[in-house]
Amino acid sequence: MSVSKSFRWIDGPAALGLLATLALPAGQAWADERVLDTLQMHGFLSQALVITDDNNVFGPSSERDGSLKYTEIGANASIRPHENVLLAAQILSRRAG
């Protein structure tokens, strides 16, 4: 069985530095109101039902009712501050087993 650990690179000063970098103006394009017209935000939620015969995958999936212990939720956003530049970010949370 493999166990994944969260990579917490966004704690403390790193988060502030990342936010400051993204918030700094990138030339005249940031001052243009049309930049906000390029902002896109999307998200998703996924729930799986796993049923197996003899193997427990993502929880007690070999039992009669299966396992609902696999869920994902994610969000992403992008903005185009200049016609040749796209800034994008995504966050994902997965619980498996």
Q: Which series of helices and strands comes N to C?
A: HHEEE
Order the strands across the largest sheet as they lie in space: 1-2-3
Q: For the report, how would you describe the main beta sheet?
A: 3 strands, antiparallel
Number of contiguous helices: 2
- How would you sum up the global shape? elongated
- Overall mean pLDDT stands at 77
Q: What is the structural class?
A: alpha+beta
**What Rg, in angstroms, do the CA atoms define?**
20 Å
User: Portion of residues in helices?
Assistant: 10-25%
Keyword list:
97 residues; 3-stranded antiparallel β-sheet; 3 strands
3D structure, described in words:
The structure is a single chain. The protein has 97 residues and is of the alpha+beta class. It has a domain at 33-96. The chain has 2 helices and 3 strands, in the order ααβββ. A 3-stranded antiparallel β-sheet has the order 1-2-3. Strand 2 (67-82) and strand 3 form a beta hairpin. The relative contact order is 0.18.
Give a brief outline of the structure.
By secondary structure, this protein is α+β, with helices and mostly antiparallel strands.
SSE topology sketch:
Elements: H1 13-23, H2 34-37, E1 40-50, E2 67-82, E3 85-96
Antiparallel strand pairs: 1-2, 2-3
